[in-house]
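Entry 14. Ran structure prediction on the chain below.
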Amino acid sequence: MHHLVNCAGVALGEGGVVECSESAWDKTMAINVKSIFLTGKYTIPKMIEAGGGAVVNIASVFGMVANPDECGYAASKGAVINLTRQMSIQHAKDSVRVNAVLPSDCDTPLIAGLLGVEGEELETAKRDLAEPIPMGRLAKPEEIAAGIAFLLSEDAGFITGVSLPIDGGFLTR
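Output, structure tokens:
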């Protein structure tokens, strides 16, 4: 085993701290954080045995900035960023690189489903979602994949502990 991409996540629209149920909080943390903990726990030793490897954890721009409507999601993605840093510092000596990507909203069928609209309404909703992104559009899945592929590659052989925004400039605002 030389490569691992942790790409599981849930956003439940749980609201702020007051509105968020304990069950929504627990589910979000289990899927978004504990899954990365467990895959790292059981995969990194195999990478060490194989002479090294690379891990990419999928976080989010919302791990760096507050989202008033999703306290659990934002907290979980912040935890992913810091877990990535912890894993990277612990396993650098083992030739295991651990990095994260921080995508902004991405134009996928999942987004269409979350927005709950179709046709022209969907296009309007996606434009509204892209409004705070300086490049003026949502990310494409292949752009996120290219960042992940780079971090897994030997071209990134001296990169560890990095959280790479793939966000069209979202975090610069």
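The CA atoms of residues 105 and 138 lie 6 Å apart. Will compare against last week's run tomorrow.
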